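USER:
I wish I could look at a protein chain and see how it folds. I am handing you a single protein, as its sequence and its fold in token form. As I understand it, each token names a local backbone shape. I hope you can help me see how the letters and the tokens relate. The protein I mean follows directly.
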Amino acid sequence: MALYKYETHLHTKEASACATCNGAEHARLYKEAGYDGIIVTDHFFNGNSNVPKDLPWEERIDLFCKGYENAKEEGDRIGLSVFMGWEANDHGTEFLIYGLDKAWLKSHPDLLSWSIEEQYQKVHAAGGYVVHAHPFRMRDYIKKVRLFPDCIDAVEAINLRNGNDEFDQKAFQYAKENDFPVTAGSDAHSSVIHKGGIAFDHKLLDIFDYIESIKTGSGYQLLGTNKEQGQTGG
């Protein structure tokens, strides 16, 4: 059976202060690595963003979307699917938001004031999907593990930037105990390809196809190092 590989968690230097690779470069690198697509999930303004804070909201959103747009332009040229998402942050707890677009961001200039519960409700109301990114990661900027099972749709069970399989194992167990679908991503920031992400049994049509495929919990394989979960979805 043919498998189609997608990176689901990726940052560009256009919008993420911690990234060293721009959108177009990422597109070329992943195409060369045999991937069929990438999802650009830059840090939003409540995370490690390099978008200036003193600009009007719509200008900030335009700058935020540059990494995705540059990746998509190059992806369209070379035959790589590029979809949009972002990574939202609340005191070190991070969420991958999928299924919404630039126009939606521009129309919600108050979103930085939302609680995690409000974020989930409003993202859902607009047809979006919320994945808890690396829920058990511990770093200097993450003071404690905070879980919100009523405010997420799925769990990122493999994050290759964790550098610690124990974090992934805990995430997979958390997903299993709460009957959440699982995802995987490299959390790519540089030109190093970690070969993470998800391999699907079909080519994804768009970001909504991605969401629906994850919801089913089947028809995909997680790519990464977490051997406990067998590298399968569901």
